[in-house]
Structure formats: structure tokens, C-alpha cells
Amino acid sequence: MISFSFEDIAVLIIFFALLLLIGFLSSKKSKDATDYLLAGRNLNLFFFVLVTVSTWYGGILGVGEFTYRYGLLSWFTQGLPYYFFAFLFAVFFAKKIREASLFTIPDKLFEVYGKNVSLFSAVIVFILVSPAPYLLMTATLMKEIFHIDFLLALIISFILSGSYLIRGGFRSNVYVDAFQFFVMFVGFIIAAVICFSSLGGTEFLSANLPSSHLKFTGDASPAFIIVWFLIALWTFADPGFHQRAYAAKNGNIAKWGIIISIFFWAVFDFLTTSTGLFARALFPDLEHPVLAYPFLAEKILSPGFKGLFYAGMFATIISTLNSFLFLSATTIGRDFFYRLIPQLNDDKIKFFTSIGVLISGIISILISFLIPSVVQIWYTIGSLFIPAIIPAVVSAYYPKFRIAKRMMLIEMIISLFTGTIWFFIRDNFLNSFLYEIEPMLIGLSAAIVIHIIGLLGKFSLSD
Description:
The protein is mainly α and 463 residues long. The protein has helices at 6-25, 33-38, 45-56, 60-70, 73-78, 80-92, 94-100, 105-113, 115-128, 132-146, 150-162, 165-199, 202-208, 222-231, 239-247, 251-282, 292-300, 305-340, 346-370, 374-397, 405-425, 439-456.
């Protein structure tokens, strides 16, 4: 049973109050769509790093669940590949994206591949930036702390993360996430220091963990590891990266902001992975591994410190939840309504984007009921949808990789549907080597084959 003292509740109430206060104080009537969607393209290096680090690392309960189940494999699949691809993004894409001075990924695809590809990519982006995993995690913590109905916890979580976005847009998103950057680091530094000082270091972990938990690859199959590495390709098509690059003052800030962010991700990954390992060592038989961090806090943290740790978890999650809510809303306002009704003025784009916050929240609440595992949400969405958009984004910024417009649309559709079909029929081959073939490999292979055919000009499809 998880219990909270008066000090813990007070810390959390202060955190929530400051979060909302900063969100609403930083909100103001935007001059135009650029001001509302990208804070006037005026993001400096300091705020770029804070908002990028806090947004990128949001799945804290999912990381706790993954580390509890698989040990260091969590860092090897959820950390290392993302550093690598984020560095490549910074070097090869950040400046190009800022120079394009657009708003979204579908904007760029519209410019290169036309309306149909743009709209189809908008659907994919909308699904990929679903706030559902982060809404689920926030609500799970709310439910455990305040002992409220799960649906009510989902609604409160949505209000905490989305209310100030409706008026303040991306500017409120930036200021709130900058505040949460410091809270999340403070919370996990406290937990890690107390774990190492009170329980011991590697000796304690070695004595109390399965040997597989201390191997970078665990006991996972090569196909499983490869798919998680391929999911990290998502970095190239991550709407959050693109949004921040578009919002930066210049290309150098976009480039170096991401490179500096990698250092902070590595530090935070050390904190979360080590505390996750301590949770597994202390509680080897948890029925719900998604609660690994809460159980750890209950065991080792005194009143007040536990409240700070929970504030750190909330900050980690909500910083991503509000960003994904706004990205989803931007997709609705800019990539759907504006693309379908191109005569919309700036005020209408802002209006539909604010409505998009509500639409995205409602959809996310429904998804949270349908798929109750954070890791499973990530794995399913990533496996099916990432292969369909990666070649389109890469080729959009590098002309020598471009193919005909209709061919690109065919590639995206076939990639998505082949992976999805295999996802549903794969269990029929449970005792066959075919079962080891992951849906993402099917979708990505289909995309690559069709893209190569397009590059070779074997199909004479006109634009």
C-alpha cells in the first residue's frame, strides 16, 4: 500500500500550482499563427535545451516498467540508439529544417510531394505524437496518490497539461517545460543518491538481480533488439524535434541545442536506469511493474523527499504530455483544417489548434483504456507507423533520394498496411521462425523496396 504524508501532498500541490501559474502567466494573446505555434521562431539555446530534454524524456513509468522487466536492456534500447540518431539529426537535418522556416513535417511533405502525401503523413504524425502513453502514466500516479477513479484521474491529468496551451500555445509549453526540467532532475537525483547511500552500489545490485538484468542485451532476441533500434529512427521524423528546430532563432541553435541535450539525456538515463534496477532488486515479484518507481519511493524515501520524487516523476511525464498535446493539436489545426481549407487566416488556424487540444485529449483518454501498458503502446505504434514516414522525411530534405509523388503515397500506404497485416496474423506462426520477424521489419522492408524501385524509375508513374 502506497501512502503519502502531509509533507508529500504539500510538495505536490505546490508543484501543480507553480506549473499552472507559470503556464497561465506565460500565456498571452498571440500576434499570429507563427507566434502561437512556434513562439515567434525566437527560441534561444537555453530554452531550446530545457524544452527538448524535458519533452524527449517523458515515459518515466514506462522506463521503470521496462527496466524492471529487462534491466540494462532498457538503456541499451531506449537510450543508446536515440543518442546516435539524435546526433545524426543534429548534424544532417537541424539546420536544413530551420532554413525551411515551415511549421510541421506535413508542411515539408506538401512542399515536396503534394497534398495527398501531406494529409496521409498528417494522420501518421497525429498517431505517433499521441499523448495517450503520457496521459496514462500521469493518471496512474494520480490514482495511486489521491485514490480517485481512474477516469477522473485521466480528466484531471488532461486539465493539468492542456489548459494553459489553449491560450498560450507553444510559448506556454516552453516556459512550463523549462520549469519541469529542473524538477525532474532534482527528484531523480534525490532518489539515486539515497539508493546508493542506503542500499549500496553494484554489490547490492549484483547480489539481488537476475544476471540477465546486468547485461546490456539481456536475454532478448536479436530481432527484438533490432526493432527497438529501428524504432529509434523515429528521431528523424519526430515532430517535437522538427517543431523546436523551426522555433529556434537560427540553425546553429537547433544543431547545438540537440547535441547538448544528448548529454542531459545520458545523465537522466543513468538516474532512471539505476533507480529502476534498485526497484527490481528490492521488489522481485511486483504484480504491476509499471509501479516500480512508486514502490521504490515508498520503501526508501522519507516524507517530503518522497513528495519531491513524485514531483520529479510528474514533471518528467507532464513535460512530454503537454508537448505532445500541442503537437497533436498543431497537426489538427495546421495539417488538417488548413490543408483542407487553405483560405483559413491566422486566427482560424489558432482557433482550430486550440480545439485540437481538446480532440487530442479525448482520443488519448480512449486509447489509455484500450491499451493499458505504456511499453505496449510505444511498441505497437512505433512498429506500425514509423516505417511509413521515415523515407518520406529523409527524401524531402535530400533531393537525390526523392521519388515520384504517387510512388511516395503508394510506398507509405503499402508500408503501413503490410506491417499491420503481419501484426495481426503473426501469431499464426507461433512455433515457426517466421514468428521472429517483427512487424516493423516487414513495413520497413516494403518501404525500402518500393523506394528503390521509385529511384530506379521502374514505374513510370506521372505526378
